[in-house]
Amino acid sequence: MSKELMQMNIQRAQLRIKAEKEEVAKGSMRQRYHFMPQAGWMNDPNGLLYYKGKYHFFFQHNPYSSFWDCMHWGHAISDDMLHWEYLPEALAPSEAYDSHMKGGCFSGSAIEHEGRLYLIYTGATNVGNGMEQTQCIAYSEDGIHFEKYDGNPVIEAPEGVPACFFRDPKVWKHEDLFYMVCGASRGGRGQALLYRSKDLLHWEYVNVLAESRGEWGYMWECPDFYFLGDKYVLTFSPMGAGDRKSVYLTGDFDYSTGKFCYQTSGEIDWGHDYYAPQSFLAPDGRRLIVGWANEWEWMSYWKDWGPTYKEGWCGSFNIPREVRLMEDGTLQFRPIEEIRSIREDAYREDALLLEPGKEYDLKAGDGVAYELKMKIDLEHTDASRIELMLRGDGQRRTRCVIDLKKAQISVDRSLADGWSKGVSRSPLFLKNKKKLDVHILSDQSSLELFTDDYRNNHSMNVFAGNEQDRMYICAVDGQARIEDIESYGLKRTM
Fold first, then answer.
1. CATH homologous superfamily, domain 343-489
2. Which residue, 375, 319, 364, 374, is CA-closest to 471?
3. pTM, 2 dp
4. How many helices (H) and strands (E) does the chain have?
5. Which candidate in 44, 224, 412, 443 is catalytic?
6. Do strands 147-148 and 40-51 pair parallel, antiparallel, or not at all (unpaired)?
7. Cβ(347)–Cβ(487) under 8 Å?
8. Cβ distance 324 to 248 under 8 Å?
9. What secondary structure does DSSP assign to 277-341, as a single string?
10. Domain spans of the chain?
11. How far apart are CA 494 and CA 491, in angstroms?
């Protein structure tokens, strides 16, 4: 009966989506080229992979409301990660281990094995002892219709780890064995736990792959682990770590001992709206990463999610990014090259000399969905800071400040839209630099700022109307020279 129950629940979810998607699509805040659900709530990216000639994105989904609740796995496929075909829900709550109304099928990953597509996810339930989280398996022969493994759950929380802090498995294969990293908490400190298996169904605990010493919060959500260049990379989203929402560590790993020794740490994105990133390999060998364009701890009450709940949806993904390893062990996160395919209305300007205190308008598409790139010539700039005003209409705007004197970037959206709040800040490393690159992606309800060779990034939700289409730049306390300005409008894909 359980197999039939999941299919019944999927069919019920599909009927709800079908009934609402056309009206939801009319929403004024709908993104134009960022991935989002047809209807309902969406959070973490799950099970990202390239399978049978298509990119597959699975995602945490509540098809019945534009707020978080009983979690399903949504599913969509694409040729380019920009144009999407939605498929039926892949997973719906149906079993004792994943059917609580405030639980369900939580985050996880996907892997192909012997022609089958396996989903590894967290089942979350409450049978009277509080939230209990276990790791579970589902599989498919066609990559569309999934069946839960009769032997679920396959892993329960180890001793010392609360059952409510044990989730988000990421699986990969090395030689003849499968490995899994899972988020956990022990003694009030976040951890990533390592497991291994011969068949994806029977798992043994190896050790603690890495853990917080107090600086990275009490729980590590959505850990990921992969080989890049000549180093291994561990990423996670820590709970209780202040402004740090998407940490990475790079170092060395020994499969024989299960020991990971990291030398470098950094932040994938300093903005308020980048969380739970998951990576996967493209068919050309690129390591790509996708994050949820929101997060939990900044949201103090329902209004902070923004106005899209009124339109019957909530949540989108940040633009997919390519991860590259630098010589010093830090990581770059570049927007995918595929975005070139949706450019239009190209505009270029060789150089712009900013006089102090004067506003200079910038041109990029329709001022709503666009891409803007430029370089600050530091050798010919004596201004203390450079300010970019984005998505403005005279009263409302998002203010990005590149403070050359304090070596800091800040993004302030407190005057952006009447909904968003908060300032995100990050250190800026300018020593021995001759130029500072700036790359901005704007969509209907988001801004993504990349700088310092794609190592210093800020992603923000900004719920701005089409009338907020002005952008300008100015220098403070001195002149600034801006070079290699190029911009594009970006076509609608969603």
1. Exo-inulinase; domain 1 (2.60.120.560)
2. 364
3. 0.96
4. 1, 33
5. 44
6. unpaired
7. yes
8. no
9. EEEEE-TTS-EEEEEES--STT--SGGGG-GGGGGTEE--BPPPEEEEE-TTS-EEEEEPGGGGG
10. 2-334, 343-489
11. 9
Each residue's pLDDT, cut to its tens digit, for the chain (494 residues) gives 578 999 999 999 999 999 999 999 999 999 999 999 999 999 999 999 999 999 999 999 999 999 999 999 999 999 999 999 999 999 999 999 998 878 899 999 999 999 999 999 999 999 888 889 999 999 999 999 999 999 999 999 999 999 999 999 999 999 999 999 999 999 999 999 999 999 999 999 999 999 998 899 999 999 999 999 999 999 999 999 888 899 999 999 999 999 999 999 999 999 999 999 999 999 999 999 999 999 876 554 445 678 999 999 999 999 999 999 999 999 999 999 999 999 999 999 999 999 999 999 999 999 999 999 999 999 999 999 999 999 999 899 999 999 999 999 999 999 999 888 889 999 999 999 999 999 999 999 999 999 999 999 999 999 999 999 999 999 999 999 999 999 999 999 99
Question: What is the chain's length?
Answer: 494
Q: Is 44 part of the annotated catalytic residue set?
A: yes
Which CATH fold would you assign to the domain 2-334?
Tachylectin-2; Chain A (2.115.10)
